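One chain shown below:
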Amino acid sequence: MRKWIMPGLLTVCCLFAVMLMFYSLRKGETPSVPHEQAPSATASGEAAPAVGAEAATAVYKSNCLSCHGDQLQGAMGPALTKVGSTLSEDDIRKQITNGGGGMPAFKGTLTDEQVNAVASWLAAKK
C-alpha cells in the first residue's frame, strides 16, 4: 500500500496542474509559462545572450516549484540544491525533457530554450 503513496500524490499534482492550465485556457488566458524569444543579433552583429538565470527561475517557479520546493529543498520530488554535483547539464536536460522516476516529461510543454536555461541554472547548483 505504501509504495503507491508517492506515485498517487504525483498523479494528483499533475492532474491539478493540467486542470489549472485548461481552466486558464477556457477563460481565454495564456498559461503562466513564459516563452522566450529566440536570440537576436545585436547592432555589432553578435548574437544576443541566451536565456539567463532570471528566466530559468521564472520557468522553475511556474513548472517545478510544486514538487521540488521554493528553495530547491525537495518536497514530492527530490531536493535540487546540489543537483549539479551529481548530474551533468546534459543529464539534467534529458531528465526535464523525458521525465522518469516519477517526474513528468516537459517535452512539448517547455521550449528548448527554457529547458536549456533551467538545465544550465541547475547544473551550477553544486
Notes: The longest helix spans residues 5-26. The chain has a mean pLDDT of 78. The helical segments are 5-26, 53-63, 65-68, 89-98, 112-123.
